[in-house]
Amino acid sequence: YGPALLAAPVSSWGKQRQVWFPPGEWIDIATGDSFTGPRVTRVPAPIEKLPLYARSGAVIPLALDPRADDLALLLVIGDDPRQTSLQLLDGTALTFTPLAAGEGRLQVTGPARRCRLQIPFMRSVAARLEATELPLQEDGAAFAGPATIALGWTR
């Protein structure tokens, strides 16, 4: 997914490795740890874990069941999220726009389908679909797309 993900493969035994982070805020998708670039940083890198980072504001589509048309969206938000736009092969467009501090908007356009939004590493998240509160559970919030979702969060 181009500029949204940064993988730092582990190629030798060791407990750490150096990673160059491009400009912006990057979130470790396993731990939620935040790194700000541009800079080189030493990070934990056991051989059994791939260091994988997402740019703050990244919307990452996931296929939880390849036989279903459902779409799971992983929205990775840090302290300084960036606007993100992504066009999927089926015509679905995903746009995350940060607004004021701790607020943003996610717009999903394209074919009608069931969606699930997951926002990890937040202490509290509020999501509204038009005037309706979206209940966020441990596995995310379900909604039918296309949709525009207003978000508020505390990291």
Describe this structure in words.
The protein has 155 residues and is mostly beta strands. The chain contains no helices and 12 strands. Strand 2 and strand 3 form a beta hairpin. The chain is globular, with a radius of gyration of 16 Å. The two termini are 24 Å apart.
Low-confidence residue ranges: none
Radius of gyration: 16 Å
Q: Percent range for helical residues?
A: under 10%
Distance between the amino and carboxyl termini: 24 Å
Beta-strand fraction estimate: over 45%
Based on CA inertia axes, which overall geometry fits?
globular
Mean pLDDT: 88
Order of helices and strands: EEEEEEEEEEEE
Number of helices: 0
Number of strands: 12
Reported for the largest beta sheet, the result is: 8 strands, mixed
Q: What structural class results from the helix and strand content?
A: mainly beta
List the helices and strands and how they pair.
Layout: E1 5-7, E2 16-28, E3 34-44, E4 52-55, E5 58-62, E6 71-76, E7 84-87, E8 93-98, E9 103-118, E10 124-129, E11 132-134, E12 141-154
Parallel strand pairs: 6-9
Antiparallel strand pairs: 1-4, 2-3, 2-4, 5-6, 7-8, 8-9, 9-12, 10-11, 10-12
